């Protein structure tokens, strides 16, 4: 099976001009995802996990290295060097991103956000309505909130809506940046159910987590980031809540 995503020698640093500091976020990162895999990344806060995902999604422009993606629309493409217009197209049709934070246009209701995501994929209005209802009900977002603006939601409600909006599109590649950060156990289980469903449908996923228990029986492989460098975890090791980083507060 060919790689859907191949990251080669990726590095990214930031300059804090007010402090006159140059910070290396990640250095010489190499990893790959085959189609249909779910690969996990763990590491302490500030180790560079989110930087990797944001470079793939092109929220950050990589400093050096390549991010090769096998696109249905464009063929093999280096996301680190692709034009902005191409990146926008890929975000719209192929690559999804779930973060802890929900950034949306003002005066757009929760239901409109999820429905728009479905319509954006080219589906008809009736199908979009049906899928929107299914997704909002799955995450048990109170019906009284469906026609409300997300700015009024709690952190957990915003995160559930953010996940619903990304997953309803069934993207070819889904990037998960701490997708269970502020969720209770019941909501985490609902996220896991949808991840398993998307995996069965062929979606490839790369996720970063602090909640290591959540990753059990989900990940094909796991990488750890330490000091901006990435290491593959040996498959015979067990994922536990204490074996890697005992100083990380668990969710």
UniProtKB/TrEMBL annotation:
The keyword Nucleotide-binding applies. It is a peripheral membrane protein. InterPro entries: AAA+_ATPase, ABC_transporter-like_ATP-bd, MetN_ABC_transporter-like, P-loop_NTPase. It is found in: Cell membrane. Keywords: ATP-binding, Cell membrane, Membrane, Nucleotide-binding, Transport. The keyword DNA-binding does not apply. This is ATP-binding cassette domain-containing protein. It comes from Paenibacillus gyeongsangnamensis.
């Amino acid at each position: 099976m060919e790689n859907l995503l191949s990251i080669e020698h990726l590095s990214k640093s930031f300059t804090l001009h007010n402090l006159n500091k140059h910070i290396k976020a990640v250095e010489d990162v190499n990893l790959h995802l085959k189609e249909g895999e779910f690969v996990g990344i763990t590491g302490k806060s500030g180790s560079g996990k989110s930087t990797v995902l944001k470079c793939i999604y092109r929220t950050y422009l990589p400093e050096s290295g390549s991010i090769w993606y096998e696109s249905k629309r464009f063929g093999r493409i280096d996301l680190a060097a692709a034009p902005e217009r191409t990146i926008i197209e890929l975000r719209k049709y192929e690559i999804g991103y779930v973060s802890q934070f929900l950034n949306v246009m003002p005066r757009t209701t929760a239901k409109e956000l999820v429905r728009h995501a479905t319509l954006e994929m080219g589906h008809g209005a009736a199908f979009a309505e049906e899928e929107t209802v299914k997704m909002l009900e799955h995450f048990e977002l109170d019906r009284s909130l469906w026609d409300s603006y997300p700015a009024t939601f709690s952190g957990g409600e915003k995160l559930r809506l953010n996940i619903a909006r990304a997953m309803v599109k069934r993207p070819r590649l889904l990037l998960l940046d701490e997708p269970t950060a502020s969720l209770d156990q019941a909501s985490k289980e609902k996220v896991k159910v949808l991840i398993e469903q998307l995996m069965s449908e062929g979606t490839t996923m790369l996720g970063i987590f602090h909640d290591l228990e959540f990753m059990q029986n989900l990940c094909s492989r796991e990488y750890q980031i330490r000091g901006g460098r990435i290491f593959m975890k040996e498959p015979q090791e067990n994922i536990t809540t204490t074996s890697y980083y005992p100083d990380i507060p668990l969710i």
